[in-house]
Amino acid sequence: MSLAELQAIEAAHVVPSYARYPLELVRGAGTRVWDADGNEYLDFLSGISVLNVGHCHPAVVEAVREQVGRLTHVTNLFYTEPAMRLAQRLAESSLGGKVFFCNSGAEANEAALKLVRKARPRGEVVVVHGGFHGRTYGALSATPQESKQAPFAPLVPGFVAVAPEPAAIEAAVGEDTAAVLLEVVQGESGVHVLPEETLRAARDACDRVGAALVFDEIQTGMGRTGTLWAYEQTGVVPDALTTAKALGGGLPIGALVTGERLADVFQPGDHGSTFAGGPLVAAAANAAFDVLEDAALLTRVRDLGERLRHGLADLPGAGGVRGRGLMIAFETADAPGLVRRALEDERIVLNATGPTTVRMLPPLIVTQDEIDDALARVGRLLSAVTA
Question: Residue ranges per domain, the chain?
């Protein structure tokens, strides 16, 4: 089927909620994808931080093949070994509490909002400007971005949005606060690392009134910033975290992970999901976990991230380089235009998070040579702009 035929089907039958590039991708392996014409692209987006282990990692493929021939779904009325093992690994690798499985990052944040509201009934949730937590109603209400919220008002009440600054958070948290919800690195607004003093202020404010601190690690988790969880680099430990994206190695799964204080707030019947933590996706997630918890890999993520940041900073036309690990952004005059030309002229997959911001999220298995190759491709694109 040709690209024109696919576009005609989309126009006739698909809700127009995505602005797609005119490109059909048909195959992926490691850090590369191929289009229907056989052209190869270097993928520095990873499905928006989903494919941290790369495309079609052999361990994930084998785990899925084995599990799909054995058992795909039974509901959460029964036990399955993949789900229980994954829950144990998530808890023991992070906060030491318990895990609620779901199917996406937005669902993980919805679960977190219900959890903190049950722990402190009718309490407010403090969020910060620039944050993004999903597009379902609770998660959207926690995302203080006018362009995303305005068309869908009225939203869920009880959210207080403040600047991501210590004094603002301290002033907003009071006896009526159920939780503060933050991203350690704000991804969708352009890879902005929240200062440790901001995170510490949130922790201290929550401790002062008995509120919960929740970190949204949907994009930063599973090794993206150079440790399995981004909070590990901050010295600030939350009461709960949410994860999704890279957790399933390419398959859809999300999770809410609690510390001990919130571990038993939910009771049977409080929350649920038909497909959550099914044996197929849990098997894939366990295989991805095997890859991403490796200390040597995480060290390489930090080292290669530093190499990529420094290389970008040396390129004329790339300003405001920032990020942590292999979660990086830079500023340029026309980010959407550069991303389009990157596909067409240099065959590298990038992402524009705004009119001037380009985001780079390569698979964590990327090599030094591929980092240097990407820098060369981006350098040629920027040179064409400044020439």
Answer: 58-264+271-292
